[in-house]
Amino acid sequence: MDQTLKVLNDLEKKHVIERYAIGGAIAAIFYMEPILTYDLDIFVLLPESPTGLIVLSPVYEYLRRKGYKEHKEHVLIEGVPVQFIPAYNELVKEAVEEAVERRYKRVGTRVLRAEHLLAIMLQTGRPKDRARMTHLLEEAKINADFLRQILKRHGLQAKWQEFRRRFCEK
After folding, report:
1. Which of 92, 117, 91, 74 is nearest to 20 (CA)?
2. Which of 16, 44, 51, 99 has the fewest beta carbons closer than 10 A?
């Protein structure tokens, strides 16, 4: 994966993307025991196109020129299936902007904070996200005040209370 991260860092250095951060299950691994996952979710802030739309085609074109192949919704980069996910709302944009610097082997990267991971999983609401949230709460060091601020800013307090009632209070 370190070679994959070098390619992602290059995308940023070449201004193909503005900023990226690892999200999803791989990000959760930085905070808790490994969980099974197929791909590397990369949340990206992209330059705005002349039409005002956010488009991924410059990313795919750059990677194609470097010899990487697309497969369904992924690009296979150095053997790792990578899914590029544009920051699709204010929560995800904030999460990428506030991602923390980490090292994988000797390669620098950014990872979404555990609190943002929880908020995004809560917002998404898939069954697998709820299971991951429970594990993350059990295993990661969560800054409760910071999480509360995120939930308040993005209108997720009621959803959080419901999650806690259903899945954490036994």
Report:
1. 92
2. 51
